[in-house]
Amino acid sequence: MKGIPDARPERWLGALALIVISLISLGNVITRYLTGGSFSFTEEFSVFLLVVLTFAGASVALRRQRHIRISFLERALPPGPRRLLIVFQALCGLVVLGLITWFGAKLAWQEYQWQSLSPGLGLPQWWYIVWLPVLSAAMLWRLLQQTRDRLAGRHDDDA
């Protein structure tokens, strides 16, 4: 759509994660119905993909200005203080997402160094964890884009 900011990589990643979760779950249900057993990998992959889906969706929501926030105060303020409030909101988000990115990267690196394996399938644990700092960094980028657009007046809040 024209005029709506896009986060195409995150949309594709989220859609792919949702499709794979659906296929894994469907396959598991059918297998359980027919054989009485289930695939052992479904829970581990599903949880991992759900985290990917959550962060990818949050990144898309940031870019499209669809995160929940109370904007009553923003609409009540004159332009100068409103800009300061937008910058303050962005700084708070940058701190939180920066900490998630930093500590997520640190954790992924430690898991790589320790050669930790996942409990269910015995895969390297860092394969799962590395997506946390990658997607939180994507959210950081989308937050900066959103803040730039809001400060430039390109995106007003929905009343």
TrEMBL record:
| Localization (cell) | Cell inner membrane
Where is it mainly found? Answer: membrane
Keywords, alphabetical: Cell inner membrane, Cell membrane, Membrane, Transmembrane, Transmembrane helix, Transport
Determine if Cell inner membrane is one of this entry's keywords. Answer: yes
Membrane-traversing stretches? 12-33, 45-63, 84-105, 125-144
Q: Which positions fall inside the Tripartite ATP-independent periplasmic transporters DctQ component domain?
A: 22-151
Any one annotated GO CC term = plasma membrane
Example GO BP:
C4-dicarboxylate transport
- Lineage, top-rank taxon, reads Bacteria
Task: Provide the GO MF annotations for this entry.
Answer: transmembrane transporter activity
Is DNA-binding tagged as a keyword? no
The annotated topology with respect to the bilayer is: Multi-pass membrane protein
- State the InterPro entries in the record: DctQ, TRAP_DctQ
State the family it belongs to.
Answer: Belongs to the TRAP transporter small permease family.
User: What do we know about how this protein assembles, alone or with others?
Assistant: The complex comprises the extracytoplasmic solute receptor protein and the two transmembrane proteins.
Q: What does this protein do?
A: Part of the tripartite ATP-independent periplasmic (TRAP) transport system.
Protein name, per record: TRAP transporter small permease protein
Taxonomy of the source species: Bacteria, Pseudomonadati, Pseudomonadota, Gammaproteobacteria, Oceanospirillales
